[in-house]
């Protein structure tokens, strides 16, 4: 097989890139290790910045988003038993965010791609990217499961959109990139509950016992999180204990949290990671393949979209003019936004989580930071700006 841009991974990054390239007339092929059902079911992000929603609309994937997405005009920060609302439009020149699960974004993009878009091969697991620093990189992949048939895809460029554990990162020779990593000393216990959300907007609590988040997937399904110590097992947290702790950490005035059957329960660690530069020869990385943020600021999916918009622009410019100038600047252009999101995600994480061993002084500092970002200050405006995100197109 041969194409212009070989895309590894059919997550949000790879699928959006394929859509953008197809519309610009640049040939591409997407190779995805898993089957369609698995990719469409994988539960992950839920919040789209306005810039991300606008890109989906612009490329024809906005119909269901506009019908079913929940537009949020703000969120609450809760601490010391009080709720402080952050109003996004009034602080960001009218911007909002939209709750629309990643599973649905992926379903919409797959449906568009299978209706006459570029080839998308499910069950095609990439095992190696070769000659990335030459003129004609080669992607080796296996179809048909373990012991399956090995095939090759020759391309002019490879887009590594295969997440944190994909083949693209493994193709980077030692010493070709720097990898910056931070692991946080706490994790998130997340539940999906079969109960209508107890608030129309996200509630983020910075309690001295730890962080809590009230969020939603649909008008009938709530998504809630609690900060827990690293190495916590979900079995340590029976449903009643989770609801009791959420009640304590999210409490504000007469507000009440509705309880319901817990459908899923899982613990995930919090990590920051950046690969610098996001390119090696003709292999360009995007999304989780290039960087990870802790979920506290809900930036992962939005950053992935920012990367592939930048990448699609660079490939389109090269395809039309023969100039590699934007491809050469791809990494620098992305990394400015990536580090900004790293900074904001780190700020939100340390603003709201109780660090192990924190003392009364640390708590006083944290409360002071919380009061600054919820008062009429420049810090509050900066928080709203960062939360809403910058336009992508
Ligand atoms: P993805 O979504 O991981 O997609 C990568 C795709 O590549 C495929 N793949 C391969 N294909 C071929 N050959 C190989 N060798 C391959 N290896 C892997 C995979 O099967 C997959 O289909 O990366 P992408 O596209 O960069 O998208 C990034 C987002 O998924 C990610 O940033 C967010 O979901 C992160 N994230 C969250 N972000 C938010 O903004 N808000 C959230 O609330 C939020 N919650 C989450 C999250 C990530 C989670 N993870 C990683 C487990 C919750 C979880 C649990």
UniProtKB/TrEMBL annotation:
SUPFAM superfamilies: FAD-linked reductases, C-terminal domain, FAD/NAD(P)-binding domain. Pfam families: FAD_binding_3 (PF01494). It comes from the Bacteria. Keywords: NAD, Oxidoreductase. Residues 2-342 form the FAD-binding domain. This is 4-hydroxybenzoate 3-monooxygenase.
